[in-house]
Design goal:
This protein has 242 residues and is an alpha/beta fold. It folds into three domains: 100 residues, NAD(P)-binding Rossmann-like Domain (Rossmann fold, 3-Layer(aba) Sandwich), CATH 3.40.50; 34 residues, Double Stranded RNA Binding Domain; 92 residues, no CATH class. Helices cover 44% and strands 13% of the residues. The chain contains ten helices and seven strands. Helix 2 links the parallel strand 2 and strand 3. The longest helix is centred in the middle third of the chain and has 17 residues. The chain is elongated, with a radius of gyration of 23 Å. The C terminus is likely disordered.
Length: 242
């Protein structure tokens, strides 16, 4: 089956997870990371979910699933091994046209969850259309090694350059050329090495004007290491800035 790849904005939308075990906990954490409003329906909770409930990070309905529980849901994940419950959730979600993922049961899913690498706002996902989660996991692990946290800082820099380019008032095609030229193949290395001179010189050459370093990476990131002090990596830069 060919799935249509899409990134959903679930911020403040009601997301329901059926089940309270370790699989449910993984799904819940992913939903919370994207600011979903999560309700968990389960007679009992995994310790991790119980802690989230006590912190009021999630809403917990301390019982089993009932018909009608999905009435105002935007997205539902069934993370239970109870086949009868899975089918009942599938029937209700289908009748209500609700997004549904039933863990490890592709035939009852109208969306699947790819293996995902996150580096800040950078998201890299791999899907095998449910045919081989093991292969998707292996590819994700390979991507995690290749794309370090420094790519989050790279994306921040490029994101801050975008409005500067758009404010120049140039035609769309010219903007596309500028964006492509700004993304120099060595930019990630300049950020890792804190080679600010190379970074700003490249941007000046492309845009024809200076962009203050603090506008790109934040003032704290410009700190020059003292003798014997290690250079800040991309993760540290982000902590300083935020």
């Amino acid at each position: 089956m060919n799935y249509f790849p899409v990134s959903l904005d679930i911020s403040s939308r009601r997301c329901i997870v059926i089940g309270g075990g370790k699989v449910a906990a993984r799904k819940v954490k992913s939903l919370l990371a994207c600011q979903g409003a999560v309700t968990v329906i389960s007679p009992a909770l995994d310790d991790e979910l119980l802690l989230l409930s006590r912190r009021e990070s999630i809403r917990w309905l301390e019982r089993g699933y009932r018909q009608g529980d999905l009435s105002d849901a935007f997205l539902v994940i069934a993370a239970t091994d109870d086949v009868a419950v899975q089918e009942a959730v599938y029937q209700e979600a289908t009748a209500r046209n609700i997004l549904l993922n039933v863990a490890d049961v592709p035939k009852w899913c109208n969306f699947i969850l790819p293996a995902t690498v996150r580096r800040g706002d950078l998201t890299i996902s791999v899907s095998t259309a449910g045919q081989s989660p093991a292969l998707a996991k292996q590819l994700r692990e390979d991507l995690e090694k290749e794309y370090s946290d420094d790519y989050d800082l790279l994306l921040q820099v490029l994101g801050r350059l975008r409005p500067i380019v758009l404010d120049m008032g140039l035609p769309h095609e010219k903007n596309k050329i500028l964006f492509a030229n700004l993304l120099h193949r060595d930019m990630i290395d300049w950020l890792r090495q804190q080679n600010w001179q190379a970074l700003t010189a490249h941007i000046r050459a492309i845009l024809g004007k200076d962009v203050p370093l603090e506008d790109l990476i934040g003032q704290a990131a410009q700190k020059t290491p003292a003798p014997g002090e290690e250079l800040l990596d991309g993760q540290a830069l982000r902590r300083c800035e935020n």
